[in-house]
Each structure stands twice: as structure tokens, then as C-alpha cells.
Amino acid sequence: MSNANLYCRFEQSFSANAERTAIRAVDGGGHLSFADLAGGAARYANALATLGVEPGDRVTVQVGKSIANVLLYLAVLKLGAVYQPLNAAYTAAEVAYFVEDAAPKVIVCDPSRHAEMRQLADRCKVFAVVNLDAKGEGSLATLAAAMEDRHDTAMRGSDDLAGLLYTSGTTGRSKGAMITHGNLESNAATLVSLWRITAGDRLLHALPVFHVHGLYVALNTAFLAASEIVWFAKFDAKAMLAEMLSATLMMGVPTFYTRLLAEGGLTRAAASNMRLFISGSAPLLPETHREFAARTGHAILERYGMTETGMITSNPYEGERVPGTVGFALPDVSVRIRGEQPGVLEVKGPNVFKGYWRMPEKTREDFSADGYFITGDLATMDQEGRVSIVGRAKDLIISGGFNVYPKEIEEALDGLEGIAESAVIGVHHPDFGEGVVAVVTASGPIPPEAELIAVLSRNLAKFKVPKRIFAVSELPRNAMGKVQKAELRKRFGDVFRAG
Ligand code: MCA
Ligand code: AMP
Fold first, then answer.
1. Which protein residue's CA is at the shortest distance from atom 10 of ligand 2?
2. What residue owns the CA closest to ligand 2's atom 9?
3. The pTM is what?
4. Which of 235, 262, 473, 485 is the most buried (most CB within 10 A)?
5. In DSSP terms, which residues pair with 84 in a beta bridge?
6. What is the C-alpha end-to-end distance of the chain, expressed in Å?
């Protein structure tokens, strides 16, 4: 039986390109050749093995973006263990839920959180806690440095888990999406071929590596194709422009593109070496697409995906990239809309995850009888199969590419002194696409807005906290008593507009 571990595919490309640069950090964080990448991954794998990590074990990772984080990701794959990345912005209360649910063998955290994580680990019977800071230093790095740079890649089947990525899916509490080696391999190979990614490419990488976009779409395709990665610790429009002439490829959320457009330096000349700009994770406004084309001569390629499915559709590489559409189903992926249009998009293919971690019932609910995953996105599809995402059947806000679930914020607000009930909505935001707004009613004196925001920030990651909170005498309801969020979106739709 051949080994379906995704790392085996990476290994082939790493050894065929050993001396070439694999990653170059722009902020003086050094650079690694493909041989360094393979050696580093083996060192980290040996380090995790000494901590007891075995195939199938979960490794929870909440660290700042560093090249060491990439070595850690590769090491977990190599060991046949399951990578569980968490947004660095999550608070201790949020992390506790993920750790309790995933039951990892090891937690890797920032050194500043070590003591707090150790307590959580004791409570949840986690074997070890090690740390890594945003410079890639810490107890795990020290342990790895003392290890050998060889480690045999664990045998895995294509249906074995490679990642456990938490998402709220269509409703309810966060659920772990079980992502297999086969899911990752098929999606990355399809994208490499569709987007013509090669060893000649240089990828501008400024996305976080705890979500599918920066982790799987960007890293896995670059590793398969042996492209060079130009590494930014975080997105900064000026820093990205400064590197653009040396690069060929960029992947980003729409906020990256609107922030680049705000820079006078974004010109045809600045983008003249670029081959392809790709956008996803949230809707790219047609006006952003058009303005970008006018300024640079490049038609941004918009694609669409989900944590549970990886990438589903893409605008064509050759052929028209139509603003406001997300293109066609990927070659090995099947999409459909049952009934009238617009309707909920459903998807089937080798990219679709194995189910929600320890939630067989929820998994069954989200698949049709004939095995299609129900995305919760409202779409239309034309005669040729070109898809446009026109809305969401799920109550979800996407702010700067990060998902915010209104229900979670409403529950937090409803628990506060003075608040009777709340409704959380997303409205147009010039920078983040959608901005989070809360509308509340009072059960007594309501604390000032700034105080409410400060209180919420103790337990909720910053990107989830409403940027504005408004008090009203009552929430609009329909005949069934359900809060009419569309009414609220109309009423508060302009709160982030200029002026
Ligand atoms: C930061 N803040 C935010 C966000 N990011 N608030 C709302 N939404 C956000 N996304 C807060 C900060 O805490 C700060 O608060 C204030 O806003 C301004 O921060 P700023 O420095 O401007 O932000 P930043 O650090 O520059 O971050 C903006 C960003 C970042 C670069 C757009 O959010 C980002 O990297 N987004 C990418 C998300 C992503 O990778 N999504 C892919 C998901 P204060 O001032 O109060 O401290 S994968 C996915 O969706 C699927 C699978 C797919 O299809 O790809
Ligand atoms: P996540 O749960 O982080 O995987 O986010 C997936 C969701 O992001 C999808 O269900 C869509 O609602 C949204 N999304 C991703 N790409 C696009 C896009 N190009 N246009 C519109 N929505 C998108």
C-alpha cells in the first residue's frame, strides 16, 4: 500500500528542489531552503514524538505567525498526527472549549500563556504544554534544535485525519471539521494545476496560518509546486507593495485588496512582475475588482470555499473572470442548487471533509441523503455553471475574512447587567467588508457603549466584539416573534459609512 500522507507529496518536491529557497521572511526573519524545511520538519517531528505524540493524536496550536509554526505544521503531518490550529486572538475562555472538545495530546502556545494553558492542560488531561513565540523561539524550538533532522513519515491512508479545524458551520457551537490527507491532497493538486502554480512562482504570504486560506490554500499549493514563499508576519499594504516587484502570486482576503488600493504606490509598474492575484474568504465587491484592474491591469481571480470543503469554485485562469462571481466548480468537484434560484449551494467531491468531530448527528444534518454537503451559502448558477454567491442562509458575519457567529455574541451580551435582549448584525464596513454591530434592549440602566465593549473583550476575541452597540426600545419582530435582522440591517446599515 502506498503512503497517502500528504507530507510524502511535499517530501518529493522538497528533495527535488533541496538547494532552492523555500521561504524568505521579509522582516529579517531569515530564509530556509527546501532542504532546511525538510530537516526542520523532521526535528520538530522528533521533538513532538518525545512528548508522546503518535499517529491520530491531536496537537493544538495557538501561536503567533512564524516560520517555526510552518515547521510545526509539517511535523504534525509527518507524524500522522492531527493539526488543530487556533486563531491567536482567541481568549483563554474560547481556547478552553476547543481543548476540552479536541482532547489533544500536546498544546503549543505562546510563552506568555504557558501558565494558563498548563492549568487547562491539567484539567483536560493533556500530556504536555510547550511554547513558541512569534519569533519562532520557545521551549518547543529549543527541544527541536537538539533533535536529529531525520524522521520517517508515518503511514497514513487518504481517509485518515490531517487536521481538525473549528468552525460553526451553518449553526450552533463551534464544531471540529475533520479534514483528511485525501481532502488536502486533492484540493491542493487541483489548485496547482488550475492556477498554474510552478516552481517559478514567488508567493506573497501575509495571511494568518490558523485558517484554511493561509494554511491549506497557500502553503499546501506552494509546497506541492515548490514555489518560493515571501513571508510576512502580518498583512501590511506598504510592506507588500515593497515586495511586489520580486513576486508573481498573491492570495488574500478582500480587505487586503481594498487596503492595497488605498496606497498610491499600487500602479501597473508596481504589479508588472505579478502573474496572478487571488481573492477569497469573503465577497470581493465588483467595484474593488474593477478598480484593481484599472490601476494594475490585473483581473483579480476570485474563488470560493469553506473550512469543511476547502476550495469549491474558482474563476478561470484563462477565460473571463467576472466581477461578483466565484466561477465554476473545480474540475473534480460537483456543485448544485436544488429547487429555485437563488438557493443553497451543495457540494460533493474529494475535497469534502469527513464530518464533525464527535458529532455524528450534526454531520448527518449537514449532508443530503445522496452525500452532498449543504454549505448554507445562497447562490445562483448560470447555464454554463458559473456560480455567484448572493447571500447566506446561515446567520454569519464575515469581518475582514474572519467569521463571527451572531448567536455567540448575543449570548455574551444577554448575560450582561442591564441588557434584556440583543441582536447582532453585520453591516457594510469600508475596511472589513462587514462590521459587527449589536442592537440591544434594556432591562435596567445600560452601561456606556465603551464599557460594554471592554467587558465583552475579556472573553471574546477582538475581531468578534461589536464595533458599535446601539440601545433601542424594542427589537423589530415578525408575526412569529422572530427578530427581523433585515430591518435592523436597513436601519443601522450606514453606521460605518464615511462621515
Ligand atoms: C483585526 N481587527 C478586526 C479584524 N482584524 N476587527 C474585525 N475584523 C477583523 N478581521 C481588530 C483589531 O483587533 C484592532 O482592534 C482593529 O480591528 C484594527 O486592527 P488592524 O491593525 O487594522 O487589523 P490588522 O491586524 O491589520 O488585521 C486586519 C486583517 C486581518 C489583516 C484583514 O483581519 C486578517 O489577516 N484577516 C484574514 C482572515 C483570514 O485569513 N481568513 C481566512 C479564513 P483594536 O484597534 O480595537 O485593538 S479561511 C476561509 O474563510 C475559507 C476557507 C476561505 O474561503 O478562505
Ligand atoms: P469558513 O467557515 O471560515 O470556512 O468560511 C466559509 C464561508 O466564507 C463560506 O461559507 C462563504 O460564506 C464565505 N466565502 C468564502 N469565499 C467567498 C467568496 N469568494 N465570496 C463570498 N463568500 C465567500
1. 306
2. 306
3. 0.97
4. 235
5. 60
6. 64
Q: Which residue's alpha carbon is nearest to atom 7 within ligand 2?
A: 306
Domains 6-194 and 235-392 share a fold: yes
Burial of 42 per CB tally in 10 Å (0-12, 13-18, 19+): buried
Q: Which ligand ends up closest to the CA of 392? A: 2
Give, for ligand 1, the residue of 205, 255, 315, 377 to mutate: max count of ligand atoms closer than 8 Å to Cβ. 255
239 CA to middle of ligand 2, Å?
26
What does the alpha-carbon distance between residue 290 and residue 322 come to, in Å, rounded to a whole number?
Answer: 10
The residue extents of the domains of the chain are: 6-194, 235-392, 397-492
Nearest Cα neighbor of 253 from 202, 208, 298 is 208
Nearest to 376 by CA among 366, 362, 368: 366
Beta carbon of 208 within 6 Å of any ligand 1 atom? yes
- Residue 257 CA: which ligand is closest? 1
Amino acid identity, position 412? A
pLDDT, residue 171, reads 62
d(CA 63, CA 108): 7
Q: CATH classification of 397-492 is 3.30.420.40, yes or no?
A: no
Q: Within the chain, which residues score under 50 in pLDDT?
A: none
- Report yes or no: 462 and 493 within 8 Å, Cβ to Cβ: no
Q: Which ligand is nearest to the CA of 397?
A: 2
Q: What pLDDT does residue 377 have?
A: 97
CA–CA distance, 115 with 109 (Å, rounded to integer): 10
pLDDT at 30 (0 to 100) = 82
Q: What pLDDT was estimated at residue 172?
A: 65
Q: CA 479 to CA 487: how far, in whole Å?
A: 14
H or E stretch at 256: helix 254-261
Q: Which ligand is nearest to the CA of 450?
A: 1
Residues with CB under 6 Å of ligand 2 are: 167, 212, 280-283, 302, 304-307, 326, 375, 377, 389, 392, 398, 403
The helix/strand/coil state of 437 is: strand
pLDDT score, position 169 = 62
- How far apart are alpha carbons 5 and 161 in whole angstroms? 10
Instruction: Report strand pairing: 161-167 vs 175-180.
Output: antiparallel
CA of 345 to the centre of ligand 1 (A): 26
- Ligand 2: distance of its center to the CA of 197 in Å? 23
At the fourth CATH level, the homologous superfamily of domain 6-194 is: ANL, N-terminal domain (3.40.50.12780)
Q: Which CATH class name applies to 235-392?
A: alpha beta
Instruction: List, as one string, the DSSP characters of 356-420.
Output: ETT-HHHHHHTB-TTS-EEEEEEEEE-TT--EEEEEESS--EEETTEEE-HHHHHHHHHTSTTEE
